[in-house]
Amino acid sequence: MAHICSAERRVLLYLDHDMVFIPINIRETHWYLAVIHARNMEIQVLDSLGTSQDRKDLTDSIKGLQRQIDMISQRKELKDHRWSDLQVASWPLREIDMGYAKQTDSSSCGLFLLNYIEYWTGDEMSDSFTQDDMSHFRKKWLLYYYLQT
Fold first, then answer.
1. What is the three-class DSSP state of 96?
2. Residue numbers of the domain that contains 71
3. Quick one: which of 61, 116, 120, 128 is 20 to 30 A from 24 by CA?
4. Which distant-in-sequence residues (6+ apart) come within 8 Å of 23 by Cβ?
5. Strands 42-46, 93-95: parallel, antiparallel or unpaired by DSSP?
6. Record's SUPFAM superfamilies (predicted)?
């Protein structure tokens, strides 16, 4: 069996899914979620602080993913995957208006990100939550991680 490096394994796993959730951290001060949505051929941005004009951190990450896809496809044929277009760097970025699901403090972005991952269907949130729910979610996630150890 040929050796597959971790970067190649990650890319191949991405290609097996319609949606790939990528947490993005901005200078260790804020988290938001990028969703590679293969069916829609777009990169969705879910940010608890709202929309932003500058997503250089995300575009750099997507360009890095594109380089990995290109390097792998030069070595072997990428087939039997769910993505109809492998030129992910050309896909548009779409900022999703999170409406009610926005933070009003300076410390809940990570919790919002985790809830976006849990409830985002690719088109909408499957459940609603607000800043007022974050205390409950802190306890929920703490209990979840405690029970995992």
1. coil
2. 6-148
3. 128
4. 31, 32, 33, 34, 113, 117
5. parallel
6. Cysteine proteinases
- Report d(CA 80, CA 82) in Å as an integer: 7
Q: What is the pLDDT of residue 18?
A: 95
Hey, is 30 helix, strand or coil? strand
Residue 76: CA atoms inside 13 Å, Cβ hemisphere, count? Answer: 9
Which one, of 6, 7, 17, lies nearest residue 117 by Cα? Answer: 17
Tell me the CATH number at 117.
3.40.395.10
Residue 77: per-residue pLDDT: 82
Residues in the chain: 149
